[in-house]
């Protein structure tokens, strides 16, 4: 339940926020809700593969945050802002 | 420890080692050596040979990777795409500062895709997915222009959200069935069906659909393909998108055979909407890379027809020559994947060539820059024309053959409406392909004749040969795809 609520908060934030860092925090929230799920479920299972999976995904989430922040920093240097509403060179 | 046992995974090991070596070379030569490019090229050629000759049917690392016909088919596609991109990148990135990182990331992305193709466990699937995604996020912003970074940011946010969806779905699948192995999940859901499995599955499909750029999860694709460096767009459209299909084929088919009737209609609607919207929106684009992006969304729709047919195909249904219908449909999907990967890589490399000579620097991919390309850069224009026809599905090219098998399987499966819609869509797509071609040959040149750079020309010609080869002599490829399909189906 906690995980589902966390996932929904992250998704809601992703849809409403326009600030790059906040968006990344929302994505992290979604990823971590899945981790909670994995660990919680593995308590009811005879094996620990859920916990192993959670460890892997924590490492991957960290790498993902690293790349995301790197992109944000270069973006900030070029545009002088991380408000994604002001970054709209590409339009359909 | 017996290392010989791991020989079928040699290609992955080699590419990982070379990507690290490339970084080291770059470190000691301060990124000015032209070694990284040639090293990656050699590694990819050797890896291709290893993949094609690997002994199939073995399982590694506690049932998490399997080398079978299906995985080798996709690996060959991924390596082919990377090979074409590397050859084209030799002039653009090799020997420049940062070029070593470019090639290292490219090889890493390839390894990630190859792991996904082999994965039969959710953990290894997720890791491969993320390895490929993270490398391509970094590559999408590689030239550090404003457009690049915006494209990278959009791609990153959508990609990260999609992996969150996927991971959440995986965690629920694990919770319901107590295993992360795809085969065990299939067994458990067959034994005791639980509605929560269906919800978990929807999460997983949404995660994959982002990668495959199916409507309505396609919003990032045109922006990213337009904004990222053209050669990276080639890798994204041809490689990373096909990775989504590899994963979807594995997970959806194996794990959810039990739910057949409940998901085929959803996929039919998804496929129909995807190809129609992709083709319609492509008609009023003026940016060639955007046109290609929407056409690749439409192609994703054609490929997903294979899912639909697999959903309806029941025991004993046959296609032409009494081939099992499910195998026939899957082989068609695989052939479309192969053909589309080659044609799209070629088309994006052509746009890279044009962008490098563009007069209108405000928007280097604007269709006005293609005016008179037939006289300015004859080889590029000719190859682009062939790729356009091939994407539209004109025989005798790779595009025609894949479409023929997939649409045919839809008719054999009783889905005539879907096949008719797909054929009408192909006709519609001719409009925007012909528009590009008419710009290239019927307009006055927008500038003087230019010398085409060798790397681009070489990879364009290779892609051209492959396109015709599959189109003219399809038998061998068809048998290969049938074997791959047989390896996947139970």
Automatic annotation (TrEMBL), chain A:
Bilayer-crossing regions: 52-76
Q: What GO CC annotations are associated with the protein?
A: NADH dehydrogenase complex
Name of a matching Pfam family: Oxidored_q2
Its main subcellular localisation, reduced to a broad class, is membrane
Where does this protein reside within or beyond the cell? Membrane
- Protein origin, superkingdom: Archaea
* Alphabetical GO biological process terms: ATP synthesis coupled electron transport
Which keywords annotate this record?
Membrane, Transmembrane, Transmembrane helix, Transport
Q: Which GO terms describe its molecular function?
A: oxidoreductase activity, acting on NAD(P)H
The cross-references to InterPro entries, in alphabetical order and at most eight, read: F420H2_dehydrogenase_subunit, NADH_UbQ_OxRdtase_chain4L/K, NUOK/Mnh_C1-like
Membrane topology listed for this record: Multi-pass membrane protein
Tell me its family. Belongs to the complex I subunit 4L family.
Q: What is the name attached to this protein's record?
A: F420H2 dehydrogenase subunit K
What organism is listed for this UniProt entry? Methanothrix thermoacetophila (strain DSM 6194 / JCM 14653 / NBRC 101360 / PT)
Lineage of this protein's species?
Answer: Archaea, Methanobacteriati, Methanobacteriota, Stenosarchaea group, Methanomicrobia
